[in-house]
Design goal:
CATH architecture: 3-Layer(aba) Sandwich
CATH class: Alpha Beta
Strand order of the largest sheet: 3-2-1-4-5-6-7
CATH superfamily: NAD(P)-binding Rossmann-like Domain
Distance between the termini: 49 Å
Number of helices: 7
Structural class: alpha/beta
Number of strands: 7
CATH topology: Rossmann fold
Number of domains: 1
Order of helices and strands: EHEEHEHEHEHHHE
Helix content: 40-55%
Strand content: 15-25%
Largest sheet: 7 strands, parallel
Shape: globular
Length: 252
């Protein structure tokens, strides 16, 4: 049995990731503020990942049902409620994005990583008797905005830049334990979050913003998660994989 925990799993990228992992025989725990039971989830937990005090209760539910965690996908995240110039951005919006996009995932990873480590030797011993191998990993879903400036949504960029560094630090700390940590950096992905700016990005894509010439889809991200979780890209902890249709290409 393999157990994957996916935050922000009720829609968009998170839901696509859950589907892809279920197809790879993971028991998927879906976490979101608004989530309904049913396929592809083996367990759903309504929770706000930014509420640090509730995280222990989330873990206790997972531990009680499965007794193990093999994969954590930190996907939950939000955009600003209103895009505002950095010279006008307010404290409330900044704090909201930091709490949801950075602070919550940082401490949730800490909690689940400690749980993985506490059970790792037992699970390895059990797997060895069956001739199997235990693969543990943590995947952070960040954004090209971690390295690309958008002055009208600065708090989002800063939160994703912080999450990118969190991925690096966790990768560094956990490498010797056998728990791999990765960052997947989506580009312009068509979801509910970007639906309100569709016309803007349709125009930008037509003008050449994305070399592959199309919107990204949640399934593009999900396939990368499934490949990493399945160990198909070994010897690569700390790797950043940008799924952006070529936005990372520097060209004149």
């Amino acid at each position: 049995m393999k157990v994957a925990v996916v935050t922000g799993a009720s829609r968009g990228i998170g839901y696509a990731i859950a589907n892809a992992l279920a197809a790879k025989d993971y028991q998927v725990v879906g976490i979101s503020r608004n989530i309904e039971p049913g396929a592809p989830f083996a367990l759903t937990i309504q929770a706000d990942i930014s509420d640090i005090e509730s995280q222990a209760n989330v873990l206790s539910q997972i531990a009680a049902k499965f007794g193990r965690i093999d994969l954590l996908v930190n996907n939950a995240g939000v955009a600003p409620l209103k895009r505002m110039d950095i010279l006008e951005a307010g404290v409330d919006s900044f704090d909201r994005l930091m709490n949801i996009n950075l602070r919550g995932p940082f401490f949730f990873t800490q909690l689940l990583a400690n749980y993985m480590l506490a059970n790792l030797e037992r699970e390895r011993s059990e797997a060895s008797r069956e001739g199997e191998e235990v693969k543990k990993s943590v995947i952070f879903i960040t954004s090209v905005s971690a390295v690309a400036s958008s002055p009208e949504r600065a708090e989002y960029c800063i939160s994703k830049a912080g999450l990118s560094m969190a991925a690096q630090v966790y990768a560094d700390r956990l490498a010797s334990t056998g728990i791999s940590v990765y960052e997947i950096r989506p580009g312009v992905i068509y979801t509910d979050m970007t639906a309100g700016v569709k016309e803007k990005y349709d125009k930008k894509i037509a003008e050449g913003l994305i070399p592959e010439g199309r919107w990204g889809q949640p399934e593009d991200i999900a396939k990368a998660v499934a490949a990493l979780a399945g160990g198909e890209i070994p010897y690569s902890t700390g790797t950043i994989i940008e799924i952006s249709g070529g936005m990372n290409i520097r060209h004149l």
